[in-house]
Design brief:
Distance between the termini: 21 Å
Order of helices and strands: EEEHEHHHEEEHHHHHEEHE
Oligomer: single chain
Structural class: alpha+beta
CATH topology of the largest domain: Ribosomal Protein S5, domain 2
CATH class of the largest domain: Alpha Beta
CATH architecture of the largest domain: 2-Layer Sandwich
Radius of gyration: 18 Å
Helix content: 25-40%
Strand content: 25-35%
Number of domains: 2
Shape: globular
Number of strands: 10
């Protein structure tokens, strides 16, 4: 069985407050990308995990894909195992929810492979216990996402745009980025209704008016290359550039496929990780 595990970006990320369990209440506008890992599932006697394409991704129980399989196996007392083979294309530690997307794909696949018969809302509830991005990765699409990531409101008129992605070397710890955010002055939040309207109307040059990632200043203070990546995307024709998630990856929006291709070819010479992709309509 093969499943696509798609990356996501945040068009908006507002931090509404912290919780006693260490999570934060968020208000986000998320969209899937065509960039995806391939997840292959096949019957086995135990849980087995193979990772190809990125040596920095663990192939043991610390991987969310392994944890997702282990959780379902224990919860439903499943006797058989599964071989999970991940072909990684989504950079880890980037804010693209690559690990969560892999875990969501495993939950969806094992629900079928093991005949568990779980509804999507049940899979989301199980996924929430593993990672805050997993409920959205199970739902996908273009959506407003609230709570710690479990409240998902699908939206229509998803924009389909060409993006260039840049990831500085090294990963940013989500926990440390939030700790740094807590010590900084609060930035102006994103106007999500205005942002949604601008995206729907194709008013991409107005995105700077409405879009915000409130974690971006904290990430820049920890990794100045985030700002450099934004600057390089803007200098090469991006009509909008912003960090996704808790970083460190930055995306640039291009109205013209040719401009995106030229920017990608130039920037891939300067940055260790540079990717060309699109937003996905569903």
């Amino acid at each position: 069985m093969q499943i696509k595990a798609r990356a996501k970006i945040n068009w908006a990320l507002n931090v509404l407050g912290s919780r006693t369990d260490g999570y934060h209440h968020l208000d986000m506008l998320n969209q899937r990308l065509t960039l995806a890992d391939d997840v292959f599932l096949s019957p086995a006697h135990a849980i087995e995990l193979e990772v190809r394409g990125n040596k920095d991704v663990p192939d043991n129980h610390s991987n969310l894909a392994w944890q997702a399989a282990s959780m379902l196996k224990r919860r439903f007392d499943v006797s058989e195992g599964v071989n999970i083979r991940l072909h990684k294309r989504i950079p880890p530690g980037a804010g693209l929810a690559g690990g969560s997307a892999d875990a969501a794909a495993v939950l969806l696949g094992l629900n079928r492979l093991w005949g568990l018969g779980l509804a999507l809302h049940e899979l989301r509830e199980f996924g929430k216990g593993l990672g805050a991005d997993i409920p959205y990765c199970l739902a996908g699409g273009f959506a407003r996402v609230g709570g710690i990531g479990e409240i998902i409101t699908p939206l229509t008129n998803a924009p389909e745009l060409r993006l260039v992605l840049i990831k500085p070397r090294g990963a940013l710890s989500t926990r440390i980025v939030f700790e740094c955010y807590n010590g900084l002055a609060t930035t102006e939040p994103a106007d999500i209704p205005g942002l949604n309207q601008a995206l729907s109307l194709g008013a991409y040059k107005e995105l700077y008016v409405y879009a915000r990632n409130q974690l971006q200043p904290a990430a820049v203070s920890l990794c100045p290359e985030v700002h450099e990546a934004i600057r390089d995307l803007q200098a090469n024709g991006a009509v909008f550039a912003q960090m996704t998630g808790s970083g460190s990856l930055v995306y640039g929006v291009f109205e013209d496929d040719g401009m995106a291709q030229m920017a990608y070819q130039k920037l891939s010479l300067c940055w260790h990780t540079c990717l060309l992709t699109r937003t996905a309509g569903a």
